[in-house]
Amino acid sequence: MKKLTLLFSFLCLVSFVSGQDQSNAEDNTKNFNGFQRTYDKYPDSAIAYLKKLAISSPLYAEDLVHNSFAQSFIQRDEEGYYKDSIFLARLKQMNMTVDSVRSIKRKMKNSTSSILEKLKSDTSIVLKNVIYPLAKWEEAQKNFNDPKKLNEIGKTYLKYLKETNDFYTERKARYGLLIAKLLYNNNKLRPDADRIIELIYNNLQNHQITEDPTTITRPVKEKRAWYRYMFAYCNFITSQNLKLTNNQKLDRLKLAFSYSPDILDKTVSHAYFYDMIFLFGNEKYSFEEDYLAALGSDEKKFKTIMVMSMNDPSFKQKAKELYKGQANFDDYWLSEFNKKFASAPLFSLKQIDGNQYVLGNNKNQWTLIDFWGTWCSPCRKEHPDLQKLYLDTKDGKMKKLNIITIASEDQEHAVKEYMKSLNYSFPVVMSDNQIEKNTTFPLGHQNFWLVHKENMLLSRLT
User: Fold this and answer.
1) Helical residues (DSSP H) of 185-328, grouped into ranges
2) DSSP letter at 45?
3) Residue 11 confidence (pLDDT) above 50
4) Closest Cα to residue 178, out of 135, 148, 220?
């Protein structure tokens, strides 16, 4: 499993504050970093930073609590780490002992528990509301071996869920499922667990975002991705109910497959990343393989894998192995691909070297189109890789790939100077300030069109 870092939280912060004035952005960053520096040792200071953040940016304070601070309450097999040879070797390199690590962990636990308790009784209604689902989950964990108390917590949380229709804010659904998992380990408490899961299942199903994905804003994309992943998860866990028939189990797994992250969801995977870690303890981005494993005939598997290969080309080889048609498989796959995806809008723009670029002239090739600007820091960071990729196409290593980049909201002299100073040679055209309006996805960092002949897989890669 990848290390759980604050990368996603930090990226969210950058995105969130970019539209605010500079002073606000600096204050938010200061409070965010201040909380992270102090929560494991100085609970009162951490709370002070969080309160300030909650005043200036309530939504981001919520995100910080549930995607970062909440990790402190995930119960891990620490004793297993203390016996791991690699972990022990690393401690030796750092001149640390197991006892010293245990001491640090105890202090961190005391500090985070203190923060949670103080926030539960804080005078700020905002903070009390933000912390409530996390606090109930932690309370359930502490009372795991007390069926009576655990039962009370389950009923209280079920009542709490029934009083609202919004299971997205404060990640109410996540904590409800975590509490239900604890209840489910006790046979007598399973009915309450089932009631919580059923309520969450119905809520997630009823709140699926069905707006045109080409017109929704990034926050709506994040919410869409979260609802889809959580609904897929609910179908996955309920498919394991021993009372279900094989057909009922397969139906649930099919829904888990259908609502697994699609191309658009993957562009905002941070929206469900932490839920995935809390619910599974590791990274499980999709339920497609689970459905695939439950299918019986090769024909059913082939049809399913074909659908999967449209979103994830790594499944294309598996589909080829099961293919029994008469036509060449690559031709068949391309034909199915072209049925599924729209045609790319053609355009013609002048490159900064004076040549004219016309989309559609590169037949029988995939075309990667990258929108960027000299003002875009993430764009600049990816350009060394883009340059290497471009050189691979020129050297014949990637014969089927054509690359063109579009400099947007920029000045041609600045773009030329940038390319010259860094010795980049990948082709660039200047935006005509119209092409952005003709695209069906909002432009921004890492927006790509992948075009084959004149057919396009609209994708936004991360």
Assistant:
1) 190-206, 218-238, 246-258, 263-266, 270-280, 288-294, 298-311, 316-322
2) H
3) no
4) 135
Q: In what order do the strands lie in the sheet with 448-452?
A: 428-430, 401-407, 366-372, 448-452, 455-459
Read off the pLDDT band of 396 (50, 70, 90): confident
Contacts of 392 (CB under 8 A, 6+ apart): 398, 401
Cβ atoms 449, 428 nearer than 8 A: no
Residue 50: is it exposed, middle or buried by C-beta count within 10 angstroms (0-12/13-18/19+)? Answer: buried
Least confidently predicted of 9-13, 96-100, 412-416, 438-442: 9-13
In this structure, are residues 295 and 304 in contact, taking their beta carbons and an 8 Å threshold? Answer: yes
Q: What DSSP state is assigned to residue 363? A: T
Q: How far apart are the first and last CA of the chain?
A: 19
**Cα-based torsion angle of the residue sequence 232, 237, 239, 242 in order, rounded to the nearest 10 degrees:** -170
pLDDT of 3 reads 35
Report strand pairing: 455-459 vs 448-452: antiparallel
CA 137, 142, 147, 148 dihedral sign is negative
| pLDDT (tens digit per residue) in 290-304 | 988 888 778 888 888
| One-character DSSP codes across 9-34 | HHHHHHHHHTTS-HHHHHHHHHHHHH
Helix (H, G, I), strand (E, B) or coil at 402: strand
Residues 6+ apart with CB under 8 A from 24: 17, 56, 57
pTM: 0.70
Which whole-number Å values give the CA distances from 67 to 10, 24, 249, 272, in the listed order?
11, 22, 32, 10
Higher pLDDT, 242 or 206: 206
User: What is the mean predicted confidence (pLDDT) over 258-284?
Assistant: 92
Closest CA to 20 of 59, 66, 47, 63: 59
Taking the CB of residue 381, how many other CB atoms lie within 10 A of it?
A: 10
pLDDT, mean of residues 334-343: 77
Choice among 23-32, 265-274, 446-455 with the minimum mean pLDDT: 446-455
Residue 311: phi and psi, rounded to 5, are -95, -30
Contact (CB, 8 A) for 329 and 323: yes
Over range 21-29, report the average pLDDT.
Answer: 74
Query: For residue range 33-43, what is the model confidence (pLDDT) as tens digits?
Result: 999 899 988 99
